[in-house]
């Protein structure tokens, strides 16, 4: 916050504390003119009000709370921009990338700053790191049959992958289904692990400029026909003559990158599984404007040991139970 608002918060907070302390002191004395234990002259439904002081334990509790509030505001952030005498903070603020986060952790360590989230990460790594390290020494295929490993992998998935692929891993529009055997970059454990470690960036160009409006309709008809869909045969035949521009990624037979061992991540067009929707309108939209998909890299976020375990879980999802 700006200096003005920081000062405003500090002044207002300290003024409130001073007022509270004054009230506590003022209430220690009897200013009513009525002796303690005597009637104040008020009666409500037969209940008479007596001039009794607060119980001592209440008074002590109020003073203890006041002392704690002063200590807390002095030691921890809370008074405007004042950082507190302990140098404590809940997390590194203002970071927008993994690199910045790592640098912030180093800076905090060098400056002797206590960052609560960093300490929690350190404690978690100390406790659970050896467990992940032990699983990382085992083969993915073995882990895919290990109930304990899969349980941990499921938690990793729920925390990091379910936002896109769904809690049931069946994906959604633009996000692949992980429970079938339709893989854009291959479903072997090594290929899955490569995808998780380094991420994937896929880009299908838009063909409207090259094909024109009619050409897009013809290409759409041919693409749909590859999976056995009923289409206008005349348009499909015209689209087939233009399909060479797509074959570099999808192959001349339209079976995609995996079938032809290509690195593009181009989907199989013959299996009637559609990442962005299989209606004529959706496929036409893909041909006309192209599609761009990004899978983030998890190597620097989770580390290789956790990715190894996550690989086993993802691989297990598409295997016959």
Automatic annotation (TrEMBL):
A single GO CC term, please?
Answer: plasma membrane
Under InterPro entries, the record lists: CcoP_N, CcoP_N_sf, Cyt_c-like_dom, Cyt_c-like_dom_sf, Cyt_C_IC, Cyt_c_oxidase_cbb3_su3, Cytochrome_c_Oxidase_Subunit
Q: Which residues cross the membrane?
A: 7-26, 57-74
Q: Which residues are heme c 1-binding?
A: 161, 164-165, 295
Single Gene Ontology MF annotation? heme binding
- Domain named Cytochrome c: residues: 148-227, 234-318
* Quaternary assembly: Component of the cbb3-type cytochrome c oxidase.
NCBIfam families according to UniProt: ccoP
Name of the protein described by the UniProt record: Cbb3-type cytochrome c oxidase subunit
